[in-house]
Design a protein that fits this description.
about 250 residues, mainly alpha, 13 helices
Length: about 250
Amino acid sequence: MKRIAYLMLLCVALPFLPARGASLTDYRERLYDLFIAQKIPQWGTVLSQMSADKTCDTLDGQYEILCGYYGLVGHLVDKKRKDEAQAYLKTALALSEKYRKQYPHDARFKALHANLVGLKIALSPLRATTLAPGMLSSAREAYKIDAGDSWVSLLYGNILFYMPGVFGGDKEKGLACYQSARREMEKNMSVNSHHWLYVQLLVTIGVVNERNERYEQALAMYKTIMDKYPDYAFVRNVLYPRAQKAMREKR
C-alpha cells in the first residue's frame, strides 16, 4: 500500500518537477497546455523552473519568461486575486528592469514593461495619472523601434485599446494593431499554433469586436478558435454563448 501511495503521489507531482533536458519548446508547450486547460495560476511553478534553467538563459528564453509573468499577472488581476497578482508583478517588474538594462534598445522588453505598468495601474488605479504617461511612452517607443514585430504590435494594441482616450488610448488603432499582430504570427504557425499568446490574441480580437457590438465578427472569431482549439472550453462555454445572447438582445 505504501508503494502504491508513493507512486500516486509521484504521478501528481511529476508535472511540477523540473524537466531534465527540457528545451524552451518544452516549456512553451507546458504553458500552452495549462492555458488551454484553464490552469494559468499553475504557470508560476513553470516560470520559476524556467528562470532557474540555464537553457532558458537566452534572449528568446527571457522573452518567454517575462511574457509568461505578464500573462499570469493579467489572469490573476482578471480573477480578482490581487495579493497573488501583486506578488508575481513584483517579480516580473524586477525581471523587466534587469532585461531592459541588459538590452536597452529591445522593442519587446519595452513593450512588455509598458504592459506590466498597465497591470500595476489596474491594481492601483489612483496611480494612473503618474504612471500612464511613462507607460504610453514606453509602448510608443517599442512600436517605433519594431512595428513589424508581432509581440510589439500586440502589446502596443493592448495599451491603445484599454487606455482611456484622455490618456492617449485609441480603440480602433488598438484593434488594427491586433490584426497586424495576427497576420505576422500566422506567418510562423510552426511556432505560434501552440503558443498561448497567439490563442490569447485571437480571443482578444473576438472580445474587442464583442465590446464594439460587432457580434457577427466576434462570433466568427470565436468559431475559428473553437475549430482550431476544441479543448479550450472557455470560448465554447463562456464567450460564444455570451456573444450569441448579446446579438439576440440587440435585435
